[in-house]
Amino acid sequence: MTRTIWIIGTLGALIAVAAGAFATHGLEQAGDLHTAQIVRTGALYGLVHSLVLMLLAVLRPLVDRGLVALDVRLLMAAAGALAAGAILFPGSLYLYAATGWRPLVFVTPVGGTAFLIGWVLATLAALKRPRKR
């Protein structure tokens, strides 16, 4: 799962940087400020959470070795929730900006909720005492 989390993080970061550049150099210069802002919001949240996913992927082996005191199951549950958010939140904004298909706006809060759940789980991973091996 760690490799998958890393890949989701790196691809999410790649897409976020490309989307941000498109918002600034394409949409904004074409005068579509509203759509540019939608894409920029997706890019910001996508990039931040992609970097967090990469950090969690790096932390996992350190937790496994006992070098970082976090509950590994909660940490990986957090990674899963954050990965879902990193796909759903910016993905729905990018698709909405590209298509204008209104039902996509209902997917965005699902991604945002996944982010919140992921952050709660990450906090709990630090608060819960790791099991002794």
TrEMBL record:
<feature type="transmembrane region" description="Helical">
    <location>
        <begin position="103"/>
        <end position="127"/>
    </location>
</feature>
<keyword id="KW-0812">Transmembrane</keyword>
<keyword id="KW-1133">Transmembrane helix</keyword>
<dbReference type="Pfam" id="PF04241">
    <property type="entry name" value="DUF423"/>
</dbReference>
<keyword id="KW-0472">Membrane</keyword>
<dbReference type="GO" id="GO:0005886">
    <property type="term" value="C:plasma membrane"/>
</dbReference>
<protein>
    <recommendedName>
        <fullName>DUF423 domain-containing protein</fullName>
    </recommendedName>
</protein>
<dbReference type="InterPro" id="IPR006696">
    <property type="entry name" value="DUF423"/>
</dbReference>
<feature type="transmembrane region" description="Helical">
    <location>
        <begin position="74"/>
        <end position="97"/>
    </location>
</feature>
<feature type="transmembrane region" description="Helical">
    <location>
        <begin position="42"/>
        <end position="62"/>
    </location>
</feature>
<comment type="similarity">
    <text>Belongs to the UPF0382 family.</text>
</comment>
